[in-house]
Fold Phytocyanin domain-containing protein.
Amino acid sequence: MASILAQGLMTMLITCMLGVCMANRGFDHGRLGHRHVYHHPNKTQSGPNKITVGGSENWHFGYNYTIWAIKHGSFYLNDILVFKYDAPTNNTHPHSVYLLPNLRSFKKCNFSEATMLASPTQGGDEGFEFALKNRQPYYFACGEGNGYHCNSGGMKFVVWPTPRGQNF
Ligand SMILES: *[C@@H]1O[C@H](CO)[C@@H](O)[C@H](O)[C@H]1NC(C)=O
Ligand SMILES: *[C@@H]1O[C@H](CO)[C@@H](O)[C@H](O)[C@H]1NC(C)=O
Ligand SMILES: *[C@@H]1O[C@H](CO)[C@@H](O)[C@H](O)[C@H]1NC(C)=O
Ligand SMILES: *[C@@H]1O[C@H](CO)[C@@H](O)[C@H](O)[C@H]1NC(C)=O
Ligand SMILES: [Cu+2]
């Protein structure tokens, strides 16, 4: 119990350092016994959720995905994020999905050690799927425009999945 609480506090501390008190309201408030208030009504507790990043907005420039992640609430281990975006045409800008290695690179949108998860053509149709397999913070960002989409387009967010079952 004590260690779980400590971990919750750590999560809050580290994520709040970003000015991004994100994604774990279910966890934090669950400890206080208000869990039912914070759970997304359609989220199942029994199996992994498939979550479209941005909901009906999909993955595009000019939408704040940090706010989306906060609103979405808790993410669980083995949840699957789905990134949907159109392949670039002459009239639309490309997007992509990168994983940044740490908080520092995330804050600065520094892609020098980033890993490309999905290219500009991989977001079509059913979208690009990424499973949150590990208990770690995942720093996602669009890598297009030399950091512009990440810095100014709102196309970055952090999720830190918790084990299913710890929230209640
Ligand atoms: C949640 O489920 C209800 C009924 O099962 C459905 O009408 C509603 O659209 C769903 N909401 C979301 C956000 O998926
Ligand atoms: C995009 O532009 C190129 C050359 O300017 C042209 O050949 C191509 O047909 C255009 N594609 C679309 C989808 O408009
Ligand atoms: C980006 O990160 C690399 C190391 O990962 C560092 O060498 C470089 O100076 C950073 N660039 C900026 C603009 O901070
Ligand atoms: C997105 O929202 C967060 C939290 O309010 C804010 O700190 C950040 O500056 C916003 N990003 C953009 C690109 O407006
Ligand atoms: Cu983009």
User: Anything to note?
Assistant: Residues 19, 64, 66-67, 152, 154 surround 2-acetamido-2-deoxy-beta-D-glucopyranose (ligand 4) (CB under 6 Å). The mean pLDDT is 80.
